[in-house]
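User: I'm preparing a small set of examples for a lab meeting where we compare how different chains pack in three dimensions. I only have the primary sequence for this one, and I'd like the structure in token form so I can line it up with the others. Please keep the answer compact; I'll paste it straight into my notes.
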Amino acid sequence: MNKDLEIPFVGLKQGIHNFKFEIDRSFFDAFPYSIIEEGKISVELSLDKKDTLMIGDYTINGFVVSNCATCDDLFEAPVKGEMTIYYKFGQEQEEDENLVVLTPDVYKINPEQQIYELITVSLNANPRHKEGECNEDVLSLLNKYQKRTEENENIDPRWDKLNKLN
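Assistant: Understood. Below is the structure token output for the 166-residue chain.
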């Protein structure tokens, strides 16, 4: 666990408290099977402490290093997202993934897992370079080997019906 992300909430007064974290490569090293290895992300947490619960509003903004889905070159894929987590004081465990139960013996939260999950769901499923930034050599190879169908070719009507399924 990353000690820099720990927030001792016992000493906090009721009301809103703001925290800011900077995420880098060392953060992702804590997740051995992470799909992300490197990045630079700012995390802002607004923690609203109440009598029986705390509401954590997370906002992330930055980039992760990812492979382009088109040319497979590494690039800085932007990530931006928001999430709300509810921290409830009590004993009973809950099934809701946005609800964390804090037992009486807990005095701090470590939002490392929640931040990691927000980063991964904020990353585009098929990250790509911006238009015109892909590796030209790979693009020319893709175009060379891509099957092209001429409009005036005779196509077996059985295959044509399959193409319409998309």
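A couple of notes for your slides: The chain has one domain: 3-133. The mean pLDDT is 86.

User: Perfect, thanks.
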